Every structure is written in C-alpha cells, then in structure tokens.
Amino acid sequence: MDPIGRRPSPLRPLATAPQAEARPAATAKAAPANSVAQVQQSTFDAPASRAAASKPIPGAWRGGPDTAVGKAIAGMIERMRGSEASGITLKGDTMESLFTRAILDNKHVTNEQLLTITNVKLEQLATSPEDRAKVLKKVPNARELPVHKFTVGMLAAATGLDPKQLSEVCPDLGLTGAPGTPILYAAKTERMQRSTALHDFTDYLRGAGVKGMNKAVWGVENRVLSAAVSALGGGRY
What we know:
Elements: H1 17-28, H2 30-44, H3 48-53, H4 68-82, H5 95-104, H6 111-117, H7 122-125, H8 129-138, H9 146-159, H10 163-169, E1 176-177, E2 184-185, H11 190-207, H12 213-218, H13 223-231
Antiparallel strand pairs: 1-2
C-alpha cells in the first residue's frame, strides 16, 4: 500500500536497482543536518549570560552603552535577568518589567539618581537588629515569601549588593507596613504585593540617601504619604 492507502499501479514500474542504490545517498545527507542540530544545541546550552546579552537593554534613551549611565543600567538589568528571583511575577510583572516601567521609563527619575543607586552600601539599607527581631516575630517566614524575594532581587540588582546579605539584614522587605507599628503583614493579593515591593524599593533608597525617589514614582516624598498613594494604586508609572 502507498502512504494514502492505494495499491501500486500495475503501470507504474517498481524502483530499479540503480534507484534503490541511490537511497543511501539521501541518508548520507543527514550528516550536515545533524551538524546544524549540533550547532543549534550548542546555542541552547550557552550560558544564561550570553542569552541575556542577546536581549536589548531597556532605557537606551538615557545614554548609549559607553556612557556611565548606560553601563550602570546594563549592569542592573543583567543582574535582574540572572537573579534567582527572575522567574517570580507579581500581578503579571517580573522584576525587570516593573523596574523598567516604574524607574527606567519614568522621566521623573534622573540619570544622577540611577548612578547614585549603584553606590548605595548595605549598611545604608539595613534594618536595625531590634526591628529585624520584631519582623520575624510577627512574620517568621518573611524571608521565604515570593514578594520578599522579588523585592530583595530588584533592590540587590539595582545596587549591585549581594541578595543573600540584603535579605539577611532586611527581612521586612516586601512586607506591608513597618516594624514597630501595628501594621506589618504579608499582603495576600498580588496587587498589594507589587505595590509594596515597588514602594519598599523607592523608600529604602530614599532612606539610603537617594533623594527624590518616592516623589519620582509616587508624586510625594514623605514616607507615610507615599505609602498611602502606593496602597491606593496611585503613582507615576
């Protein structure tokens, strides 16, 4: 039977010996195809950094790749793409998409602020030991929450700090509210989690000396007022 179920026509000659001998030649052509597959496989097996490098870096309008701000942005984005938290999403946003929309594409955030962020030190962000104890008493699994890992990952990538060290000294990152107040909890909705992650990002940087970060994103610099704007779903992003 032929492939569509018909019997061979009696008028159609069967393959002659020379034709049958030609078939191995078609098999021999498989070698180049295999070599192409091997090349493709080697591409898939390339380091993640090479794959990330092939993607365009956002924020190009701020400065070319050879400028100080261009190099700073490239470092931030590459660290986000290589972060263990890169696969976490909050309300549809990855760290990179939220950072790009709220910070890099935000005309109220200046290049000077971005460059200052890269010089922030761990001790400038660290929560006091007393407040860390309060955080872990109220939310013992704070460091295991996806929103915490997301917030730590974004802040660590932007500053160049080690995410494990940042998580250790700031277990409250990603929690709604503040230690030492009646309001401190792990938000259940992803909308509030995303809002909290971004507000923690801007407010911790404000506290570390990067002036104007809250105002650039939320429209007001004050910590409490900007948190209220964030919780209500406002802001400039």
